[in-house]
Amino acid sequence: MLFDRVKPLDQIMATAEKKSLKRQLGPVQLTLLGVGAIIGTGIFVLTAEAGQKAGPAMMIAFVIAALVCALAALAYAELASMIPVSGSAYTYSYGVFGEGLAWTVGWALVLEYAVAAGAVAVGWSGYMNGLLISAGIPLPEVFRTGPYDGGLFNILAFCITLLITGLLILGTSKSAKVNAVLVSIKVAALIAFIWFALPAVQDENFKPFFPTGWGSPMGGIGVLGAAASIFFAYVGFDAVSTAAEETENPNRNIPIGLIGSLLICTVFYLLVGYGAVGAMGSQPMLDANGIAFHPGSPELAAACKGSEALVCSKEPLAHVLRVLGMPGIGNMIGLAAALALPSVVLMMIYGQTRIFFVMSRDGLLPEALSKIHEKYQTPHIITMITGAGVSLFAALFPVGILADISNSGTLFAFFMVAIGVMVLRIKQPERHRPFRVKFVWLVCPLAVLGTLLLFLNLSVYTLSLFFGWAILGLVVYYLYGRKNSHLGNGTEPA
Q1: CB 195 within 8 A of CB 328
Q2: DSSP state of 112
Q3: pTM of the model
Q4: Residue 292 DSSP SS3
Q5: Is residue 274 a contact partner of residue 201, using CB atoms and an 8 Å limit?
Q6: Beta bridge partner(s), residue 247
Q7: Of the four listed, 68, 263, 287, 475, which is most buried by Cβ atoms within 10 Å?
Q8: CATH 3.30.499.10, applies to 25-284+302-489
């Protein structure tokens, strides 16, 4: 029953009433689009999480995650060019595998977008709290973090999420100029960190290089465990592939934009990682048996009490420069993160509401969720529901746990996309593909294996949450979605 009700690709595009867009984006614009979408909480915050999992070897984790992303991105680009409509991997799965699996993918995308928005909000609050402490006006400690991190309620993460939700209901959007300014701020902050941190690098800080080894399946620790977490630092590259219809010569420029943006960000990440590790070290906090604590655990929070270690910081890049005796520069890095990261929260919540909107339009979720506000012309009901959920995630959970949960949904979606490309190559080889993956029978199987490898190296806690969420989703589908599906009831407009 999961594989029936396959919606024809032509019908998907007709339902969305997609209009033709002007092809005007070249390789430089696409590369910059990808860089702007990728750089965010991952590098500003998860450097400390990766250090706790892998120590100095987190730099290898950055490379592994980038390679898996590059393979998945190429597969994503082919489907995005064939089906240039809203809904992301949910829509693609509807046209390839059928309604049941499409629902499962769409349900998993809640983890990618909504939970990721919470992770970014928590990352932002870490930098904002650092700025408030430096300014001498700190919040009470119980309101700086959630229960897992030794606090009670992360008030800043909660408030920024509600504020952004309000802006989305009003229809506020970022202009290209504002986005360009925010991208410039993020890139300038990373360049500044690299400039000041690299001269302070010392060889001793890289020893031992592999304090936790490569890791083991479902352990969540080690280089592969760090790669599974640091994958979050690259999420956003699909912004390049979704611009396929607006790209000049997509066969040439889409791979340039994808690989170019990933290469640039990987170089940035390696230099930032090298500077952070070399300047002050990143050895993990260990228990009495010499085993690294899991990031985001109460045990790590207790071990970090009063510690200046990099792996304990909620604002690692600013923290490194403050420890090096440059508090002013560190505060500037923190200010840059505080200014730029809310835009990522906005885009994540925006993406989540649009996926829910498409699922509601297909009848799989209640029709009321796709209701448009008469004045603001936005899906206000689903935006309010999503914003409320994200704000609670952000208030109660630490960034490491939220990022890993988000990665589980993202990796599953990319896994399905890579398989979908191969299925369509067999079933519909004649269909026009503005972008075609070269060496598809090498690239896509490697993408499948890579996403599966990282997925299995998430912690048992994360994987249990993922499968629990998936089971809940199937219950909702069979109780509501399957009975009310427009495709199943024959009420889908042609």
Answers
A1: no
A2: I
A3: 0.84
A4: strand
A5: yes
A6: 25
A7: 68
A8: no
